[in-house]
Amino acid sequence: MRRREFMAGLGSAAAWPLAVRAQRGDRMRRMGVLIGLAADDTETNTRLAAFRQGMQQHGWSEGRNLQIDYRWAGPDVERIESQAAELVRALPEVLLATNTPVVAALQQATRAIPIVFVTIGDPVGQGFVASLARPGANITGFTGFEFSLGGKWVGFLKELVPRVTRMAYLFHPEIGPFYSLLLESVEATAGSLGVETTVAPVRVLGDIERAISAAAKPNSGIIVQPDGYTLSNRRFIIELAARHGLPTIHDRRIEAAEGGLASYGADLLDLYRRSSAYVDRVLKGESPADLPVQQPLKYELVVNLKTAKALGLTIPETLLATADEVIQ
Questions:
Q1: What is the rounded CA–CA span in Å between residue 110 and residue 103?
Q2: CA 183 to CA 169: how far, in whole Å?
Q3: Cβ-proximal residues to 212 (8 Å cutoff; 6+ apart), any chain
């Protein structure tokens, strides 16, 4: 019975056998990319450039032997779902997915077309894969961080600003549903350093304003969780924090480059380049079920000295010496 039900679920043309895909030789191949950021976001273009670079290294070139159908949905969940359905209807041979809501929408739209994700927080806990070693279905990819990272943000922010005794944890609870696991690490490290933490869930811009205003107390700082909503609204968050004189620490380099005090997280461009290897392997006939989920290999600490000076901070030389990048 289970087999009959499974085969019925593959009744559409989306269920092309991998063997057929592997036999296409030099024919133009087709893939879809769904991005949970806006099309004009500089971070979008930077990440896609890294992915294309990786694809070229594997012998794939847009317009020659590969057609890529792009969709930019921003952080709006309804738009993500409609764009996912539209992409699946186009019947690509493989899909690249860029954050948790995107993978969830594509998983709902198809259980047949292979999906390679990038920067997902908790693929097992969210039901995308059976295990990291053996994903088991049509989805695999690359995680964006490990949950101990939360404690590292606390440690770095405390080292950057020793006077900080309060930290607000800013996150979108639906777009970043793994927040509780990161928060455990945040609170454990904060407690050991004598730092008080508060949670600040945000769903709309008004929530961000209220959360940052509430955090604007002496000796306070802000940890910004990596999710599609906080990334899409990073400039708003950074500007408000600066207005209130609050130091911030982030996961992504772009946030430090655009005015956050510091960032510590995975080298996302490396992850996007590496994801091209899995897309290549799927296009050559391998099943996502047999490709283990991979974790980041490179992490980078970025410190913005211009922001530090604006906040009246003197960054310890020892920390600057260990930073991967210092923005003047």
A1: 10
A2: 8
A3: 168, 170, 222, 237, 240, 241, 244, 246
Q: Which residues contact 7 (CB under 8 A, 6 or more apart)?
A: none
Query: Could you tell me the residue range of the domain that residue 84 belongs to?
Result: 2-144+267-298
Task: Clarify whether residues 117 and 262 are in a common domain.
Answer: no
List all residues 6 or more positions away from 108 whose beta carbon is below 8 Å from its beta carbon: 81, 84
Q: In the chain, count H helices and then E strands.
A: 14, 12
**Helices in 161-227 by DSSP H: which ranges?**
179-192, 205-215
User: Residues for the chain: how many in total?
Assistant: 328
CB 303 within 8 A of CB 320: yes
Same domain? 137 vs 279: yes
Q: By three-state DSSP, how is residue 107 classified?
A: helix
- Amino acid of residue 314: T
Same domain, 80 and 224: no
Tokens of 84: 């996912």
**Residue 286 and residue 139 share a domain:** yes
- Rounded distance between C-alpha atoms, residue 311 and residue 6, angstroms: 59
Contact in structure between 38 and 75 (CB atoms under 8 Å) = no
C-alpha span between 192 and 142 (Å, rounded): 31
What CATH number does the domain containing 41 carry?
Answer: 3.40.50.2300
Helix (H) or strand (E) holding 318: helix 317-322
CA distance 248 to 271: 24
Q: In this predicted model, what pLDDT tens digit does every residue of 185-224 receive, in sequence order? A: 999 999 999 999 999 999 999 999 999 999 999 999 999 9
Closest CA to 142 of 287, 300, 289, 278: 278
The pLDDT tens digits of the residues spanning 133-177 come to: 999 999 999 998 888 999 999 999 999 999 999 999 999 998 777
Number of domains in the chain: 2
Interval 23-65: pLDDT, tens: 444 689 999 999 988 888 888 889 999 999 999 999 999 999 9
